[in-house]
Every structure is written in C-alpha cells, then in structure tokens.
Amino acid sequence: MKKLILGLFMTVLPTLALAAGPAVSLDSVDADHTNKASLQRGAATYMNYCAGCHSMEYARYNRIAADLEIPEDLFLENLIFTGAKIGELIEIGMDKKQAEAWFGSAPPDLTLVSRVRGEDWLYSYLRAFYKDDSRPLGVNNAVFENVGMPHVMVAEQGLCAVPPRIGTAPNVDPLSGNVRNVDICDSWAIEGSMEPAEFNSAMYDLTNFLSYMGDPIKVERERLGILVLIFVAIFFIFAYLLNREYWKDVH
C-alpha cells in the first residue's frame, strides 16, 4: 500500500510543480477553423517564415492544400520551397545537432504545438520579442524568458526596446479620457514595416493555422458530434415509447 501511495504521489508531483510555476499574462484569441482565408494567410506565413527551422512531421502538404481549398499546383508553386512533392510530410533539412549548437536546442516540431501550448500562448509569444543585448541573439521574449529563437519577423513587427505589455488590454484613463495601452510597446529599437494592428492580424492568422494543424478535423468532429446528439435525442423518444409499450401490461 505504501508503494502504491508513493507511486501515485510521484505521478502527480510533476503536475503540481507545473501548476506552482509563475503565471504569465496572455492575450486572448479565438481560433476559427472555418475561416479559410485566415488559414490560407497563416499557411503562407508559416511556409515563408517558420518552415526553414520548424517541421510539421505529422502533416502532409496535400492534406493542408485540400483542407484549406488551395489548388495543388498553386500550393506547389508558391508554398513549397524545398523541392518536396505534394504528398510528402513537412520536414526540414536542418541538422538537429547543428541546430542545438546554433540555438541551444533544436527548433521543435510545430504540428501539435497548439495542443501543447494553447492558442493564447502562441499568439502572445509571437508578438512578445524585445531587445536584450545580454542574450546571444540579442533578443528575449516576455512570454518565454531566455528563449533561444531569433525574432524572425523583426523586419515586419520591428523590435521593442523594452519588454512589451502582454495580457494588458487597452483601457481609458478616467482623468484624461485617453486610451492607454493601445500598443504593446512604448519604445521601439527597430521600426517595422507593418502597423501594430496589421502585425497582430498576421500573427492571429499564423496562430489560427497552427491551431488547425493541431486539430485538423475539429470542424468535422464538432459537426458529427451535433448529428450524433440529435440522433441520440430522436432515438431516446422511440426507445421511451417502445419501453412504455412493453411494460404497460406489467403491474
């Protein structure tokens, strides 16, 4: 019995340790897998900015093309830059040992990252880079402290000179009536080519795409779930009437 209790305690201990860790404020986002235009833009962002380092080893190009309603010839021409065939898995050519030497750890596969981290975390993380000269790559992240990833979209977003405000919603100053915290950054070390709202929209699309990759049959699953519940409700009516007919003469 003592061994059983000890085993259960050791199983629960890692969960308790994670729960006791410092909480990070996040910006909320609602993924929409029915928004094909958003998913298409997110796929383009992933292929152009992320696929050089991050694989999706559990997904195939043609499945994405079919689900996102992108013709395969256009997908091949515009979104596959490695010479891979349309039916292949989304893999990268980067050697993991070299990646560990460059970044401290190999870039993770992104197929299921939304299931592990959550959409709010991804959306907040993608917008939370800031200048930090103490780090090897010169940047840090307000959501993932001491991250080894460079800010690959610095030309688009720019680079915040101070830790950005993540998880702080815009609000109105009661004295002046001015809207505060409209932008997550007060001072920019590098100016980006996109306006903050435009970059936020692009990161929403990328987050939406990564959310779809983590659960590509979500829309169909939810549709079937509703149909199953309707069937169960109808079946219950007939089952109830049949049961009453069988037992009506039993006293």
Number of helices: 10
Shape estimate: elongated
Q: CATH architecture of the largest domain, please? A: Orthogonal Bundle
What strand order characterises the main sheet? 1-2
Give the terminus-to-terminus CA distance. 50 Å
Helical/strand content category: mainly alpha
pLDDT averaged residue by residue: 87
Q: Can you describe what's shown?
A:
There is one protein chain. This protein is mostly helical and 251 residues long. The chain folds into two domains: 25-214, Orthogonal Bundle (Cytochrome Bc1 Complex, Chain D, domain 2); 219-245. Helix content is 49%, strand content 10%. The protein is built from ten helices and eight strands. Strands 1-2 form a two-stranded antiparallel ribbon. A two-stranded antiparallel ribbon has the order 3-4. Helix 2 packs across helix 9 and helix 7 runs antiparallel to helix 9 (196-214). The N and C termini lie far apart (50 Å).
